[in-house]
Design a protein that fits this description.
The protein is an alpha+beta fold. It contains six helices and six strands; from the N terminus they run H-H-E-H-H-E-H-E-E-E-E-H.
Length: about 180
């Protein structure tokens, strides 16, 4: 038979073990909650985008990869795609960009309806292989409107959108409205 001192020691050891088990379970639960919250915040399987818009003409970019990424984003968001072909050398390309910078409503409509991808055309890189899948371009900038799956819908000569020494806000807005995705399509 065990003495009362031995029983108290055993009882104390059991209490200590039980406290350690409870503490371990609490730590494991807290760690699991932390992992789950980080996983959920990362957007795995969620609606968050990791897409980075192509907002500069860059001769080092891969336009095929950029288009592939834009298709994923367009399908995720229900937008269409605009390929803006030009270069940093192109005065009219900068004038078109300035039109959007000056007209926030126009820029907002563009961004909410389209995934815009700038495709470089320059001495350094004409991207001929990539651009050969589209109709001939007569001047820059040139806009191709694509369905969210990447199929061509329209080829737009931006000269038709000009007025004097700038692009017409009304013509550009009409162009965007005409080719924006329609509800239910």
């Amino acid at each position: 038979m065990k003495s009362s001192t031995q029983r108290r020691c055993l009882s104390s050891d059991n209490d200590s073990l039980q406290r350690k088990n409870v503490t371990t379970k609490l730590w494991v639960s807290a760690l699991l909650l932390l992992v789950l919250s980080v996983h959920a915040e990362a957007g795995d399987g969620g609606d968050k985008s990791t897409y980075t818009p192509v907002s500069r003409f860059d001769s080092a970019r891969d336009p095929a990869k950029d288009l592939k990424d834009a298709v994923v984003e367009a399908q995720r968001t229900g937008k269409r795609i605009i390929l803006d072909v030009g270069g940093e050398w192109c005065v009219w390309c900068h004038r078109l960009d300035s039109l959007f910078q000056r007209n926030k409503d126009l820029d907002e409509f563009l961004r909410t309806s389209f995934v815009v991808v700038k495709i470089n055309f320059s001495k350094e890189n004409k991207n001929e292989g990539f651009l050969s899948q589209f109709p001939k371009i007569d001047g820059y900038p040139h806009l191709f409107v694509l369905h969210s799956d990447g199929k061509l819908l329209h080829s737009q000569n931006t000269g038709d959108l000009e007025e004097g020494k700038a692009h017409s806000r009304e013509r550009v807005f009409a162009f965007l409205k005409k080719w924006s995705p329609q509800p239910g399509k």
